[in-house]
Write a structure and sequence with these properties.
- The structure is a single chain.
- By secondary structure, the chain is α/β, with parallel strands linked by helices.
- Helix content is about 55%, strand content about 10%.
- The strands form 2 sheets. Strands 5-6-7-4-8 form a 5-stranded parallel β-sheet, with helices on both faces.
- Strand 6 (about 210), helix 8 and strand 7 (about 240-245) form a beta-alpha-beta unit.
- Helix 6 (about 175-190) runs antiparallel to helix 7.
- The longest helix is centred in the N-terminal third of the chain and has 22 residues, at about 50-70.
- The protein starts with a helix and ends with a helix.
- Bound molecules: adenosine-5'-diphosphate and magnesium ion.
- Adenosine-5'-diphosphate binds next to helix 5, helix 10 and helix 12.
- Magnesium ion binds near residues 151, 152 and 213.
Amino acid sequence: MSEIKNFWKDILNRIQLDISAAAYEIYFKELVPIALDGDILVVVSPKASKKKAIDNEYNGFLKAALAETGTLIKDIRVILPDEQSKYDTSDTEEDAEPRMSSIVFNKSYTFDNFVVGESNRIASQAALAVAENPGQIYNPLFIYGHPGLGKTHILHAIGNELLLNNPNLKVLYTTAENFTNDYTLSIGGAKNKEVVKAFKQKYRELDVLMIDDVQFFEKTEKTQEELFHIFNDLYDVGKQIILSSDRPIRNLKLLDDRLSSRFAAGITVDIAVPDLETRIAIVEKKAIGFNYILPKDVGVYLANKEQNNVRILEGMLKTVGLYANLKQQPITLPLAREALRETQENTEEHLSMKKVVDRCSKYFGVIAEDVLGKRRTKKLVEPRQFAMYLITVLIPVIPLSTIGDYFNKDHTTVINARDKIAALKNDNDPHTILVLEDLMRHILEQ
Ligand code: ADP
Ligand code: MG
């Protein structure tokens, strides 16, 4: 049974590189592999409309992923739950309990891991209060602050805390972008009433709805109108709504007036730039999380170097950690300076994404344009993933979405690539370590 499941996981990992995050969420995540029928893998889709979409639109992607695995399995058949009895599912029975598709919150984004200072005290207190009494005190909770100051961290911390206190709670975290995609796909793609109904139901049965980055709602009236109704339905029955934005509500120009007045109806808290003390505490906390031994002076150096954005600060810490790791030396102030001089100061001229891609392509003996293209042969996927990883590590100032754009991919593809290489590296995979050392040298030298 675990064989089928692992195989399916592999397929999903490959598919994710190719299709949008929204399509993945809607069509693929819920599929459950149940049996092998000869050399055909049988998976169950909960809904006819979704099965149809997969058969019509995503079959090619499944086939390509299948081919890449080099397996003897020749095809994948999507069936509906009522056909399940036709197959021998004894291989997978053990895992037959229904899976609630609830979001898994990032385990490292907790209240414990969130450093509280003057800049975020009120926001974190309000968030904790909401996590302890959802729907009862601050509703909606609206958090705003510049990018990289911990909004997403706080939303995940609320999610983790809520589920810790009550694992049965239905909590959904989404972003304005994903909500829009989800809605657009449900009304457009399938042209099927059932999908629209499923969409509405999915949101209306929630206990807690979180929408991150609401500044990305576009002036697409239908989406906002749908959200308006969902908001009212949830709010009226005392369900908790939590929103984040990079700017205050009054500056959300693309938002419908009636929606923004709803958003403003509860409590609004802001997160400001953390002071030096707080930044030092954050760097030190992150270092512990990454298992780095970080001397005090290096923490202070980093906290002074980046004052406005914790994500960048964290990126610099990782750059230093990676550098120390590759040089097999402990983290010291001179080493940190060296690591960051070579990356940060030369960002524009020398360390552009182009350079990383060029060097990676050359190293693997492929053409840079192909690495940036759509084809997903093994020969191209490897250099692509190393290039993505190295860009996130060496040029942490570049947002994931920008990297994604550069590679003509979704930012989740970048995340997957980054995490994959990082995991291999953490497992001390010899090939990965060797390639990274070589590539770092090629990229950083001159
Ligand atoms: P935003 O959503 O506001 O852009 P994030 O929540 O993604 O920012 O935060 C960026 C990074 O900085 C995350 O890794 C987060 O854990 C970290 N971070 C931000 N503020 C803090 C803090 N006060 N304590 C610990 N980590 C923080
Ligand atoms: Mg965020």
